[in-house]
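FAQ: What does the model actually see?

It sees only this:
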Amino acid sequence: MTTGNTLYRAFISNELNGRAEPSPAQPGAATAICRIPGIGDALAATRTLLLQRIDEAREAVETVLAETPGSFPTLPPAPRECQPLVEHAHFLLRTYLTPFMRRVFNREQSVRIAVSGKRLKKVSRRLHDAVEEFDTQYRHVADLATRLACEYPGLRATTYERTAAALLVLAAWDASHRSPTTTRTQSILRSVERHGRIRLGLFVCPPVDFTRINGDRPELYLGDHMHGSVLSRLTGRLRDLFRGLEGAQAEVDLRVFIGDTDEDDYLWYGVDAPAHLDRLALDARREALVGAVEDYLVEEIPGDRGNHPRVFRGASLTVQRLSALAPSTECQKVYAAVLAAPFDYFDQQDIEAESAIMRGLWEPGSYYQGLPEPDDCTLTAIVVRKFATYAMQGRLLRESDFDLVLVQSERPSMLRARMLNAGWDESGRSPLSTVDFFEPEEG
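And it is asked to produce this:
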């Protein structure tokens, strides 16, 4: 019998050796992960405090060593990684601060040194307390890293630690309230082992104003900035996610996909596109939107504690049009299969739920205001094509980056998951990994 670990080791070995397609494997039992609200912020706060206390202690130590050269070991540089920080704090206490206090508080044989006993006591106590506070938070990471190492042996220690930190933040943020799947855990382990960071994806809806569709320049329905867009209503909670990952020191490779294919994939099949729509001008606006989205995500916003990015701060951000990813033959087959037999993948309740959602998009002030509203039969045809499009896109993302974890920011989340994964139902491979912005719908 082949064990899950054996499958995983073969899986990651294939990936690290450059094979494009890992061997299919059925997911095993998911590693249980606690939901700890604010874990990333707590790790950041306690690490910052520990760094401050270490700097305070080092200043005291350096003051003493300046008057007693050669009596104690040379003070090494302070590390910046989490676990070495704790070790360095203990080193300061054991090698310097405690011996210093023994000299000062040695009754009749006490020795005067450059730092008072009162200050030594204060520095030592504050450093000890900071270590305990940090340990309390970091213990969650260390315990999960240990479990990951047992379940998926053979990787670097830093891989387990960084993966554990990322998984804890994602689990706390994920509104689905479901434990991470084995697929998500394995994807993040592979990403961190290979690249040192996790790989997240995010769909962004283009800003639109369809009231301009019948004007002299109908291509102007596509906006050129993100203010007032769907994304602008999501930035607060998205920032919470990326701030938490920053706090946990989980580096992120963020890929943002602008959904610029919706009209051609399903909308124009039920609502006629303007005959005089300038496709070249529209494409130029779509291309310009790439830079606008990137600028919007990283724009520095003033806050009570200084500036912070609107959404994302990181060295690795890629924004691209979804149309830039050429669907494979298999992706095209998925689209055709769902279109030909939608009830092989979805039920009537799914069709009705999505139809109700889309019908609401024609209400005044909503997304499709300005377009002629389709009748029920036409709307159903649009919805079926939308299902086919999402199934194709879910497979496309999985094929383009096997270890991508999608930050799924649409609702209803459970229906969206079925739509994105319909193309994998009979493939024998794992579905697209997600973390959900919204809570799952009832039922």
